[in-house]
Automatic annotation (TrEMBL):
Every HTH araC/xylS-type domain range: 8-106
Keywords from the named record: DNA-binding, Transcription, Transcription regulation
GO molecular function, one term: sequence-specific DNA binding
Pfam families in the cross-refs: Cass2, HTH_18
Protein name: AraC family transcriptional regulator
SMART domains for this protein: AraC_E_bind, HTH_ARAC
Keyword DNA-binding appears in the UniProt entry: yes
Gene3D superfamilies named in the record: Homeodomain-like, Regulatory factor, effector binding domain
Domain of life: Bacteria
InterPro entries recorded: AraC_E-bd, Cass2, Homeodomain-like_sf, HTH_AraC, HTH_AraC-typ_CS, MarA-like, Reg_factor_effector_dom_sf
């Protein structure tokens, strides 16, 4: 349960510093994780980004203070991190569907968010299927893009990249280079670490080719992998399986993420039927 305790410690850190400028790298350190792994784990467990959680909690506390004290709107706006009353009012309306002045007069129902407590789901209705695989280091050939973790750029841009390569012939060219044991197209996520706040994302295939005029080479280190089966229409099946891994499997498995590249593996035919089979490969320790 160390993994769950680390996430809860990070949430407690956020709660203890809500009136200060919170740096995501400091929060991730509390969870003994990189920025990428912490942000992704947090979102999987809570269906809410770290930034959104902080915003919701600050606006919840601000609403309570407005409705229960005689504090001025401008003072409360500054207290909870807003530079101007206008920016505070705009954010307040978005969450509570009323103005700060209305909250002071008890007009309407406030949308309040309580402090998060992470709980373990011991058993899902449909447990994930997986195998443990030991694999030596291998090379992959493909294309690489670097995405910032700020503003969820990676979540927005990666699907666009897949759409592009599926329609411009890139996938067909990659599949011709696939001569390794993993038969499929890889989506490889390489965490750049805390300082950079970015990830390298590869669309590639396992290949023994040394060079390519069109593609780059990435080395995947030897790892113990947990290979999860994913069945069903995309992207819903993939998203659902990721959530189960983080909310059900990791907390009770005794394993931790090894911090090295992880992969999604898709069949070469790119089928989008309800019988679509793919895999999630996560390195563990």
């Amino acid at each position: 349960m160390t993994w769950i305790r680390d996430i809860q410690r990070a949430i407690d850190y956020i709660e203890n510093h809500l009136l200060e400028k919170i740096k995501i790298e400091d929060v991730a350190k509390e969870a003994n994780a990189s920025i990428f792994h912490f942000q992704r784990t947090f979102t999987m467990l809570t269906d809410c980004s770290v930034g959104e959680y902080i915003r919701r909690r600050r606006l919840s506390l601000a609403a309570k203070e407005l409705s229960q004290t005689s504090g001025k709107v401008i003072d409360i706006a500054y207290k909870y991190g807003y530079d101007t009353p206008e920016s505070f009012s705009k954010a307040f309306r978005r969450q509570h569907a009323m103005s700060p002045s209305d909250a002071k007069k008890y007009r309407g129902k406030l949308q309040l968010y309580d402090r998060l407590i992470i709980q373990v789901i011991l058993k899902g209705a449909e447990p994930v299927k997986y195998n443990i695989v030991e694999k030596e280091a291998f090379s992959a050939m493909g294309i690489k893009r670097t995405y910032s973790l700020k503003g969820n750029e990676n979540l927005i841009e990666i699907p666009k990249l897949w759409n592009k390569v599926n329609h411009d012939g890139t996938i067909d060219k990659l599949c011709k280079l696939n001569d390794g044991n993993i038969k499929g197209v890889l989506g490889v996520c390489v965490d750049e670490g805390e300082a950079e706040g970015s990830i390298d994302y590869w669309i590639a295939v396992e290949s023994t080719e040394e060079t390519s005029a069109q593609f780059e080479k990435v080395e995947i280190p030897a790892s113990k992998w947990v290979v999860f089966e994913v069945s069903g229409e995309m992207p819903e099946a993939m998203q659902s399986t990721w959530k189960k891994i983080f909310s059900e499997w990791f907390p009770t498995s005794g394993y931790e993420h090894a911090g090295t590249p992880e992969m999604e593996v898709y069949p070469e035919d790119g089928s989008d039927s309800s019988e679509f089979y793919s895999e999630i490969w996560i390195p563990v320790k």
